[in-house]
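This section describes the prediction task in plain terms. A model, or a person checking by hand, is given the sequence of a single protein chain and must write out its three-dimensional structure as a string of tokens. No templates, partner chains or ligands are provided. The sample shown here is typical of the held-out split.
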Amino acid sequence: MQHAVAARNYAVPTPVQEQSIPPILDGRDLLGSAQTGTGKTAAFVLPILQRLTLSKKNVVSGRPRVLILAPTRELAAQIGMSITVYGRHLPLRHTVVFGGVKQHDQVKGLRRGSDLLVATPGRLIDLMGQGYCSLEAVEIFVLDEADRMLDMGFLPDIRKVIEKIPVQRQTLFFSATLQPEVMKLARSLVHDAVEVSIAPEVPVVERIDQSVCFVDPARKFKLLASLLADTQLTKVLVFTRLKHQADRLAERLVKAGIAADAIHSDKSQNARMRILENFKRNRVRVLVATDIAARGLDVDRISHVVNYDLPDEAETYVHRIGRTARAGKEGDAVSFCSAPECGCLYAIERLLGNKMPERSDNPFHSEIARSAYAAASRKKEKRTSPPKFNRQRDKNRLKKSIAYSGGKETKRSGSPRKRK
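The expected answer:
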């Protein structure tokens, strides 16, 4: 295993690895909070591989010793790749199962026997129902990216899986955030757990150079093409709202001579994996994605994120731009804002706590969009400001409150109110 780690040029453990590996090796339950891109996968894969190797048992068909649950197909595949890399020289087997593809090869892996099983909840429950998999022999249970699982509505499936796992087990719980719902789930899973919380030294948003371009909707493509003329945009992730918009935009980029492709939930799993692999290997310079498809993306060295369409929810904006600042690196994010999207921009700025700087090199600047943004800002600020002092109004409210206090019948405009 040390040879495998050295081959990846890893010499010093990351903070989450340094704090997680010793208690996992000791067999303790662990409750971990760390952002994606901090080496979290290796923090649980490495000690699990060591424990399995030191307590080697004969594999049994359809009865894995370790179960790792992940929210998306892409993340499950990435965890499986990590197991392949770190366990290259170890006598261990693993199988990865997820939906969106035919189950033949996955069933074949389960029948052959696997020490480790990496799965998405839906496909795992399906295979269990068909009798191909049993969780009665699970010794270590890992729930990765739990906050995203809750966002995607997997809680009922997670509970079904947990009911089939032995009570006597080691449980490792990892999440990027520890919101109240996440903590409630975590407390129900672990026993006397070691807590590891790795806060980023600099928040992801602060490591990203953010800017906005005011532009008319019809000129967004020309603006994007002008930005891509800059060779510093080496690996670009572009977000659109709708799936057909992603396909259309990718086609227009290809016609303009820019290597691009689109990824969204309507594409088959094999197609999504092929597209993602091309993007990782720089065969495709621009990947156009929708928010749902991008949730499982874990691609290093994305130079820029472009919000071709602003999201309806401000929190989604933070998730989007976080794709470019991974493992402590810096990144760039450019947002296009047309007049109909000014309310979205204002909501994002309120969430961030500051105004987004405007790009000065925008050749397709729209004064109409900028004016609409200014008007929307004034209107929303007026709504959120406290009500102005009004002496007569407050005096009337005081009279009303006195009229209904003390249990006395008091005449007001209209018929008198009877005492009860």
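For orientation: The first strand starts at residue 30 and ends at 34.
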